[in-house]
Write a structure and sequence with these properties.
By secondary structure, this protein is α/β, with parallel strands linked by helices. It has a single domain, classed as Rossmann fold (3-Layer(aba) Sandwich), CATH 3.40.50. It is built from 10 helices and 5 strands; from the N terminus they run αβαβααβααβαααβα. The protein has a 5-stranded parallel β-sheet, sandwiched between helices. The longest helix is centred in the first third of the chain and has 25 residues.
């Protein structure tokens, strides 16, 4: 029997994370320089660590280049549009952009299926349509990656309890999250069918074991870098110009009430 790995400590985690984040800035430069279009889908059970991984990926990237899309529940109109896919299309990347989807069109085969928001026929149609949709994205030149963050039943229970008792994390726990605990096995069956039907050569699924959040983040970022061949983008040498001083300029004294009180 394989022994469980020790939890990754901060002394090991942070230096590695910083190295990977530096490489992500190089990827960003390549995306901009070559006008690439990058779309990354993050899926998984509630509290599996998707948001934490996305935060570390985007932490040092330019928000004008790298956008995070986390859409609310669909409106009644959006529910009827192209298998639940259509509302995500307008958020797909243009040239020189990276878009990270914190949950995606796969809500149709996940929460909407398990919670009964979509009928069996609607879910079946989605599973038939989405492989061709993703092939179309790839043929159009979009670099599409799909990650599933996986945690155990016990780990999810622990994380939910932590959210319940932590005032700064309670906002993360929705009534739908609590319902998902009851329907753990239904989510498992939905996930397995989703993998079977949508794990295509053009856009395969990559599963990230997420019980150890720090390892999950490092492994995900490292894998993502491996999917994006990149090189250094040539830069002109940067020189800081000298400030121009105008001897006739006198700075006006601003009213004290414009300043934030110095409480700290």
């Amino acid at each position: 029997m394989q022994r469980p790995q020790r939890t990754l400590g901060g002394n090991d985690y942070f230096p590695e994370l910083l190295k990977l984040q530096v490489e992500l800035t190089r990827v960003q430069e390549q995306v901009v320089a070559q006008g690439l279009r990058v779309a990354i889908v993050f899926e998984g059970r509630d509290s599996a660590g998707k948001g934490g991984a996305i935060k570390r990926i985007t932490q040092h990237l330019d928000p004008r280049v790298c956008r995070v899309i986390a859409l609310p529940a669909p409106t009644r109109r959006e529910e009827t549009q192209l298998c639940g896919i259509q509302r995500f299309v307008r958020h797909l990347p243009a040239a020189g952009e990276m878009v990270l989807f914190d949950r995606s069109w796969y809500s149709r085969s996940g929460v909407e299926s398990v919670m009964g928001f979509a009928t069996e026929d609607e879910v079946e149609t989605f599973l038939q349509v989405v492989p061709d949709f993703e092939r179309m994205l790839v043929r159009s030149g979009i670099h599409l990656s799909k990650y599933w963050f996986s945690i155990t039943d016990e780990e999810q229970q622990l994380r939910f309890l932590m959210r319940i008792h932590d005032p700064m994390k309670q906002w993360k726990l929705s009534p739908m999250d609590l319902e998902s605990r009851i329907r753990w096995e239904q989510y498992t069956k939905a996930k397995e069918e989703m993998f079977e039907r949508t794990n295509i050569a053009e856009a395969p699924w990559y599963i990230v074991p997420g019980n150890d959040k720090k390892r999950a983040r490092l492994n995900c970022i490292s894998h993502l870098l491996g999917l994006m061949p990149y090189t250094d983008v040539p830069h002109e040498e940067v020189h800081l110009p000298q400030r121009v001083f105008n001897p006739d300029y006198e700075r006006e004294v601003l009213p004290r009430d414009l300043y934030v009180p110095q409480k700290y």
